[in-house]
Structure formats: structure tokens, C-alpha cells
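Batch job 17 of 40 flagged for manual review because the log was empty.
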Amino acid sequence: MALVESLLGQITLTTLVDIGLTALLIYWLFSLIQGTRAVRLLIGVAVLLLVYALAQIFDLRLLSQILQTGAVVGIFALVVIFQPELRRALERIGSVGSLAWLVSPGEQRTAERVASAISVAAARLAAQKMGALIVIARETGLDEFAETGVPLDAELSADLLCTIFFPRSPLHDGAVIVQGDRIAAAGATLPLAETTVQSERIGTRHRAALGITEQTDAVVVVVSEETGRVSLVERARIVRNLDERQLAGALVALLRPGGGRGSGILTEGARSVAAVPGRLQAIPRMPSRGRPPSGDSASGAAASGDEQAAGAGAGGGPT
């Protein structure tokens, strides 16, 4: 009884605050790497630490010395390996001090106009099974990716988007970069994600969408040329099979001032569709095996490929 009273006497308000903040930090770190290949890498690090602990317990000096020597190099290797996750973490920390929530209601109206134009265009393109890849910038600049395409600086409209992604258009085979309510560039090249999916293989457009959302806070709308399905990608997570109304609602939630800062699409952009069975799919990411699907280019995101239909054979590629 005296021991319990002694322990309770050491618990102060400062201790509780310290424990709470530490728990929040650990939770935030785990939410940051959830669904990424960093999870498997952390498991590998944990296994090595366990082996080192066992080597110390059983006095395996040679093995302990090897692991200690490797740990010095491993620290620098982890910085390189976790570069995308570290970059994303720093961007999220930097966005905490943003004053976007203080902007005028005009920003909300801009988000609604952008969402309306893109959702209408996506519905038209999906009805005709015309592939599309639309990247919408938020706080992270996309100038380096826009420079890989053809600069337009044109007013965003559904008609213009449909014209760009018309199959015989010179700019249809690439991504459209939207900044604010204007189309900054078309035919842009995006980085491809090193992604494999257990149940299906994804095409180049979806890999490009995952790749750009791994590195930035952009929101990407993908229209599959093969299936005509519309997908929304944010923070390397995909919401599939959206209709025009659902897509517009999710885009408004993500693009409004201060939107999409928490857990990403899981909490901000897809509340209206998350309850629908089969809508929400978090893509598990692990190092890709073998060669990428046919249609992938070495330079990145030429969007000639699309989402592979479910149940297709392992030898098939996107069309």
C-alpha cells in the first residue's frame, strides 16, 4: 500500500502532460508512416535490435561488434532511406503555422469552382473512357513538375480539361497541373511510385498519382482509360469509384482553406464516401518486384497506362 501511495505521489500535472505529449508524438509518427514501405523497414530495424540484444545477453562478442560497426553506417543509411517520410513530416510541421484559415471567404469559393470544374470534366471523361491525370496543388509548390510539361497558365474549365485529355490531343499523354483556379501546365511528367498491390497491378497513371502524393501534399484525380472509373488520391491513399457529386464534395473538403491537414483523405476529403463499402482503399506499398507494367517509361509519368482490371493475369500490362 505504501508503494502505491509513493507512486501516486510522484504523479504530477507536468508528468501527465509529458506522457500525453509523448503519446501524441508516437501516434503522429505511426500515422505518418502508416501504409508506406517505412513500416517494413522499421520492422527490419527492430529485428536487428532484437538480435543485438540477444547477442549481448549470450555474450556473442563477434556478432555484437559487427552490429555495432554496422549501426554507425546504418544511421546515415536510414536518413537516405526515410527521405520521403522525413520530407513529408517536415512539410506537415511547417503547415502547422500556416494562417490559411484566416483567409477571406473568396478562397472557399475558389475551391468550390475548382472542384466543380474538375468533377464535371472527370465525369465526362469517365463516360467516354478517356484517361486523365489531374494534379491539384495545395501548399507544396509543384513548379518543378510543371516545368516538365507545356506551360499554359489558362483559366480552369471542364471544357478545356476534356480537350486536353482527348485521345488525339498532343498533351493528353501526361499530367495537368492545377494551381489555384488556373491550369499551370499540361503534359507534365510525374515521379512513379515504387508500388505493388497484393490484389491487382496498377497502371502508370495511378502509380504517378501515388508518386506525386508521396512527395507533396497535392490532390490527384485519375480517370481510368480501361475501366472508366474515377479515383481520388491524396497522401498515397486512393478513394475509388467516385461519381461527380462525391468527387466534388471530397475536393471541396480537401481544397478549402485549412482542409486536409489532419490524417489526410481518411478524415477530411472522403467522409461522404468512406462509409460506402469498397470505396476506400489504402494502398500498401512495398518495393516492387521485377519489371514495372508495360507502358511505364523510364522518365516517369507519361500517362499511357491505366489501372489494371481486377483479376487480370500476372503477365498482362495496362492498356
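Reviewer: the log was empty due to a logging misconfiguration, but the result itself is present. Residues 28 and 51 are 27 Å apart (CA to CA). Unflagging and moving on to job 18.
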